[in-house]
Amino acid sequence: MPAYLARRLMESILILLGITLVTFILLYLVPADPARQIAGRSATAETVQNIRDQLGLNDPFFMQYWRYLTALFQGDMGRSYLQRAEVSELVASRLPASLLLMVAAIVTELIFGLTIGIVAALRRNRPADHGLMIFSFVSISAPQFVIGILLLYVFAVKLGWFPIGGYGSFAHVVLPAVTLGFLGAGWYSRMMRSSMIDVLGQDFVRTAQAKGLGKARIILRHVIPNAILPIIAMIGIDIGLFMSGIVVVESVFGWPGIGQLAWQAIQRVDIPVIMGVTMISATAIVLGNLLADLVAPMIDPRIKTK
Amino acid sequence: MKKFLLTGVAGLALCGQMAAAEVDENAPMGGNMIVTYKDDVATLDPAIGYDWQNWSMIKSLFDGLMGYEPGTTTLRNELASDYSISADGLVHTFTLKDGIKFHNGRDIVAEDVKYSLDRVTNPKTRSPGAGFFGMIAGFDEWSAGKGDGLSGVKVIDDKTVEITLSRPDATFGHVMALNFASIVPHEAVEASGEDFGREPVGSGAFKLAEWSPGQRVVFERFEEYHRANLPKLDQVTFEIGLEPTVALLRLQQGQADVPGDGIPPAQFLQVLNNPAQKDNVIEGGQLHTGYITLNTQMAPFDNVKVRKAVNMAINKDRIVKLINGRAVPANQPLPPTMPGYAEDYEGYPFDPAKAKEMLAEAGYPDGFTTELYVMNVDPNPRIAQAVQQDLKQIGITAEIRSLAQANVIAAGGEADQAPMIWSGGMAWIADFPDPSNFYGPILGCAGAVQGGWNWSWYCNKDLDARAAEADAMTGEENAAARIEAWKSIYLDVMEDAPWVPVFNEQRFTLTSDRIAGDSSLFVDPVHIPVNYDYIYSKDAK
């Protein structure tokens, strides 16, 4: 196990290094000059040149990349070109909000997804099953922007149950979490349904029935715990999905997370901020996957860590 | 309203009314106002901030020597009690008012003026506004990093500062009213370093009370503000991160007073048709022109007949309808509210048949294929499609290149890349209400360089010389002749037709029932979306 963990950690670091390189190359190739974004439209060519010199944008690619990496290993993510603030501070001030939203969304999608999947499996091929599967199909296909605005209009504006966007209390987190969790709920309900149907057909379930156990007991003690295993492993992978959804959902609900920060940075070619946000999201995704792989054998001994 | 972010242009939608506004000095004091924005505030450092969102915020936090009468484009003394110019137009002497203080309680002295001007022009500050101060003596040396400040700025005593120019410049008063010329306390700048933009200390009507990134920025009244009975409001809260659509919902529920990003285009007609809201919509002009650049150094647009033909092919009325009438058709570079606008000039008529004839005369009877660059944010791609259809009528096939703002700007700055660019979302709003501001960077030779903003790559040395002459005409007695000189420059530009001027955008501001003030304050030329200092709350006693 420790050897496995060490190997996986090394792999993760290599992956992250690869991501910094790819992102850096992409930003280097983009045909937009950050110095001109900083200089503004009234600047002279000399001013732009001076800014390029100060930021080291005239240096060869590998020199720029090396400088970024060495600073990064010392914990320095640089300063935003446009806001002039430390990137680490900008990201740190946004991260808690994004993490809170992500946890709330995972809880939401599990509650909805698992419940729907279980009910659909137990009512297999009956109207309830068909109805729920249509719902899950819609939730997978619907654009998050539309769902967000719709939920805002109905539950915040018309019914007044929740605030119209913003951040601060428990009431603020409900609608964005539901919007973000909606997509995952659709996936999980489908996976849970087929996983349940799988388990229901297995020998040990028949044995349990033969022993004369009550139906509720069989479902709760034997079927669900077995059916849920593959789902748990999925949550880690899900983090990648959230990172893309978070940009949209944060902008609809005015949620002060890193999605909002990333969006503005991209608009204005603020390279240090783009790099910082990419690094943080990549780290979250890599850690999520690692965690999923580590947790899976603990809850299901059939899976071995090799 | 359109987002002119980085280029932004500084917000300066300087609009219309040249006459002084009726500002109610006795309006009640107290209360608060909530303004919503989608984007977080980039910075509140007056040397750095150059987008239309932070431009007016900075105006309320900081003061310069000069400013504008509220709701107008009329210059007035701000921190200066007296401003005099020598006979040759080169020496400008400012005397500071008595009893003016920074938010930290310290008295403002002449040394602060020098410190602030040296700071904004210091190459290490990397200010996007440094170039505006090019007329001050010693600018070239200092901006190259030589010496220890602008040699042209001299402190005479605690109350007096003397600024010597290297050339007479009629726009200097406006330059000293720019945010970039705001007076900052050196001790606060030195204490905060690069973070001064998050911890601003100025002398404006409001001071910063709270900044929660991505959530809200709160301004509160500065009790020792140098103008009596101002500001009217105790507090202004900027709620950040709200989509314009969501902001509108908040306003309808009474949870916001002004949607800072304006009325979203998709909801524009709905708001105008809503009896409860339509009376709260205030319309004003702005110093903006949207245009199509024709690259005069790329064939076939190097032929003036081709450029004239394109000018006659574009149906501007249809484009204005496309954006729900939020603009007026244009026929010259200057917008109607800018001094120097030629009211009797008729421009090129919309006449596809004649355009086709002219194209044949130029040697393109069957038209040609070209590219039209456009920023990829609505409504700009739709406008580009309308232009594409109009060009098709005279046989020109234009392929649309719809890109992010920064990429279009980069393409325009290369001599041989973009044959045509629709300027929407990028250019051009004046930085200050003077006709010269529509020439240098976008039509003069200085802008026709790699990385410049003269995307037509139009360079007429004769007009450049006339422009320099016009700007040297300082003094009240020459003001009218100077405006006439500029007017004829722009009409001669149109003879060469480097642009198709398409429309001048109008500003539409929506407010709640809770706040009030003279209507000019809601379309204030330099304060977008509203003049925070003079608006008052009906809740105040």
Automatic annotation (TrEMBL), chain A:
Gene3D superfamilies tied to this protein: MetI-like (1.10.3720.10)
Residue span(s) of domain ABC transmembrane type-1: 95-296
CDD domains per UniProt: TM_PBP2
Residue intervals passing through the bilayer: 12-30, 99-122, 134-155, 167-188, 227-253, 273-296
Listed PROSITE patterns: ABC_TM1
Domain of life assignment: Bacteria
Subcellular location: Cell membrane
InterPro entries for this protein: BPD_transp_1_N, MetI-like, MetI-like_sf
Keywords: Cell membrane, Membrane, Transmembrane, Transmembrane helix, Transport
Family: Belongs to the binding-protein-dependent transport system permease family.
Name assigned to this protein: ABC transporter permease
Species this protein is from: Thalassovita aquimarina
TrEMBL record, chain B:
Subcellular location, record wording: Periplasm
Domain Solute-binding protein family, residue spans: 75-447
Entry keyword annotation includes Transport: yes
Coiled coil: none
Main location class: periplasm
Signal peptide: 1-20
Transport as UniProt keyword: yes
InterPro entries membership: Peptide/Ni-bd, SBP_5, SBP_5_dom
Highest taxon of source: Bacteria
Annotated keywords: Periplasm, Signal, Transport
Protein family according to the UniProt entry: Belongs to the bacterial solute-binding protein 5 family.
Function per UniProt: Part of the ABC transporter complex GsiABCD involved in glutathione import. Binds glutathione.
Protein name: Glutathione-binding protein GsiB
Organism: Thalassovita aquimarina
